[in-house]
# Entry
Amino acid sequence: MSRRRELLAILLAIACSWLLAAPAGAQVPDDPSGPIGVESNPPIVEVVDVPEPAPVPEVGITIDGEGDGISRAVLVVVMLAVASIVPLLVLLTTSFTRFVVVLGLTRNAIGIQNLPPTPVLVGLALFLTLFVMSPVISSIKAEAVDPFLAGEIGQAEAIDRASEPLKRFMLDQTREEDLALFLSLSGAEKPDTPEDVEMATLIPAFVVSELTTAFMIGFLIYVPFLIIDLVVSAVLMSLGMVMLPPVFISLPLKLLLFVLVNGWALIIGSVVQSVGVAG
# Structure
């Protein structure tokens, strides 16, 4: 009996010590799925104020302008289109090619490769072209540009009217054999009148005619300078001065001759008169 009492006393002591060792404030969490002794706090959600998008301004282009004339938007588009093709028109539909080729051949005939500079020759050829083409430009302005700006005619009719004076000028400067060549190459039927020739056929024939005329004028310019070169070379050979380059003697003589005969006036006057429009 005494042993049983001792064993019971030991068990009671162990149970009391276990109860005393447990935390007094420990509580079982409400959420059985969470870990024991850890409090579960709700997530914190931060509210951010999103600004409203700014209103997009409305942009519009009015094509139909107010008033009797054409609108500015259409006028700007037309002017930009014309400005983009002006260099091509100057090269292919005017006498610019004739002028610049003749001036270049004159420089080569004298024997100075870089004088006058190429920009000077191109600028001179451009202003000579404007001088020669002034009657054609005036006709285009009176027949096509002014009525179009006033709103009297449409764009298509303005282009047709503007092409008529230019076509007449090109036909006057185009040789018949060159025009016949490109008509045969195109395979088209021969038109009843020259005015019925398409621009696609007339433009290359006109350019070839301009080059031919320019080369003919250049040949006439080369002849006197070539004679000077031959005379100087023969004199140097007869004097036994073989080591002296003939250009050292002939170049000053060419320049002197060119200045004495007023060469620039003769050449420019001849080329302008060969066109036969300005006056």
